[in-house]
User: Fold this.
Amino acid sequence: MALELGGSSVSLEPTPDGRRLVVRRDVAASAVTVWDILTDTDSWPDWGPSVTAVETDSRYISAGTTGRVRVARAVWLPFEVTACTPYRWTWAVARLPATGHFAEERADGSVVGFEIPPLATGYAPVCARACRHIASIAQRRDA
Assistant:
């Protein structure tokens, strides 16, 4: 059963990393555009409500990319991209498993989504806002 949260759906689902709370939103743009936004570290502060800056050697992430993110405009936390396959990537922040990120192609656009570890379900509203921001950015880019 899916719940609605700020225009995104939220449900508990199996993922490649086990059962996760999945937050997803339909996007009127291509999955290629959504994927570019998700993997471009320069754009993370534009869509990530908790990320205010990123430092890394690679603008576009891949498996093994490391760096640090500034959250709450004050705290810098190290990150490592733990997996990155076409249209899905995961990371650890401060050595803790964090959200998975994905894009899916649809006939009439795409879907953007986040996979949240069960112990971090309180992060669902933040991910719903991120989905809304990504959808808005992607729609402008594809216009």
Summary: The longest helix spans residues 124-142. Helices lie at 31-39, 44-47, 124-142. Residues 3-142 form a domain with the Alpha-D-Glucose-1,6-Bisphosphate; Chain A, domain 4 fold (CATH 3.30.530.20). The CA atoms of residues 65 and 82 lie 8 Å apart.
